[in-house]
Amino acid sequence: MSEFKIQMPKLGESVQEATITKWFVKEGDQIKEDDPLFEVATDKVDSEIPSPVDGTIKKIFFAENSLVPVGEIVATVILEGEEDDSIENESDQAITEPIKTGTPQVQPAGSTEVLPQKPAQSGRFYSPLVLSIAKTEQVSWDELEQISGSGLNGRVQKQDILQYIDQRKAGVKTSTAAVSTNAVTPVENPAQTAPKVSASIGSDDQIIEMDRVRKLIAEHMVRSKQVAPHVTSVVEADVTNLVMWRNKVKDQFLQKYGEKITFMPVFTEAVARALAEFPLVNSSVDGTNIIMHKHINIGIAVAKPDGNLVVPVVKNAEQKNLLGLTKNLNSLADRARTNKLSPEDYQGGTFTITNFGSFRNIIGTPIINQPQVAILATGSIEKKPAVIETPYGDAIVVRHKMFLSLSYDHRIIDGALGGAFLRRIADILEEFSMDREV
User: Fold this and answer.
1) Dist. CA 369–CA 350, nearest whole Å
2) Which of 26, 64, 122, 231 has the lowest tally of Cβ within 10 angstroms?
């Protein structure tokens, strides 16, 4: 009988640890595939982690309320039966790998560390079959992380690693497609490095301790400011055509598709188009490396009823039309407000939009969601007097206008690039056609 070790999964962009809030099993329990094992909580998601296999819980390594780093082994499971190729089709978020016994593989000269002595850094799921092939063929973690997977969310499948091995044996230089790593330049714990500020407390003052989520959000925001030098650029966009188009089609859109059309799908579409034209903005930072992402995955900040914000991700936004973006965004927003988002909904973001306008704010300077390099804030749309040119001279008319503000990482994005990218988003919105079909 083989054993599996269950690791703390990657639960979102830049999430490096999570708290086990509840165990649904205990040592000795029989479990089936997809049975819930434990519940975890981070500043981005509260989620149940299911079992990827059938078996018996052998050992649980962490108690409830333990803060566990991503990739740490939390439990081992004795499998029912031997491994086979069917495990290759697993799409579970829990990262697992078989525990092997016997003499370890000897590392060949000139090679980096051989599996499975080092955890995956990208957060990608590797099936036991792929890991077994990698270990047998002495494929290092660094090599495995560079293989471009053909499976869901870039997962490396059996044919991918076999093709890589064949190319390596033939001496063919393989493509090292950029893998989205969520590593952030290490910094010290803000709570330990920030100077303590004493506040005077009056007899009528109320002291409220931060809850777990608020503490984690605070640390994440401080870390972002410590890591990245923030610069913010602002433009004002005339979105009169967009407002008039939405007013004209919103009832028809709802009747035809059963979805409410808001401005956010249009903003997301404009951002996706601009990112395709300015690919460096669609990147992440890993130490001194810039990782330019192939796909455009846009995170949308959503306010929950408890006042905290979460950032679910629209995957492959550049491939979706306006209807697809509307359905995707409405689904994510509804599930975010009811705490029904899965860990996968938070993963892989390459750019973020936050809508200050939903709170009737006209402008803001958002903090970058690490390890991304930029974030866009959309302000409230307001009617304003504006001067326009006519065949008979200038005229003052009422137009719908809004501010767009872009915070970007000055290590990667200079003012020229940041300004041009932001201006392009505004141009796309201003050029929106009132004759666009629903």
Assistant:
1) 9
2) 26
